[in-house]
Write a structure and sequence with these properties.
Distance between the termini: 26 Å
Shape: globular
Radius of gyration: 16 Å
Helix content: over 70%
Largest sheet: none
Low-confidence stretches: 1-27
Amino acid sequence: MEHMHEGHDQHHQDHQHHGHEGAGAGAGKVSWAMAARATLHCLTGCAIGEVLGMVIGTALGWGNVPTMVLAIVLAFFFGYALTLRGVLAAGVGLRTAVRVALAADTLSIAVMELIDNGVIALWPGAMDAHLSDPTFWIVLAIALAAAFVITTPVNKWMIGRGKGHAVVHQYHH
């Protein structure tokens, strides 16, 4: 978990040291690198929640639907939590920080979860794989990679319009 925090702290340092001209105002050019960093930030929280939910549900012998619901709920929880951590560290009040996290991450996490869970649901045998089955881990990794690839352009589009992680940028300066 400490390694995850180091990556998240690097994400915040990137915001502090790279120009985001006009990102908060919805103007300016957004680089693919900036979109990828925002997506990796979201993916970190989603992956923590997704893996934890799948592990808990599978270990408890839950069915596919309750396990997937738990994984999605935890993915949103951890995705928002990582953003909240950074915004609260900037000295913002809890109510404002929650609004910022919801505005910054909701669409990104939703797209990521749709792709991630869609891959897992549609992959033959993936939903029935157990934790000890390499298929479980391989398909989960492929699903998260697909979610990253498809969500990055969504984040690039949102940041370019002053939405998504552009909302968070104003609290990192």
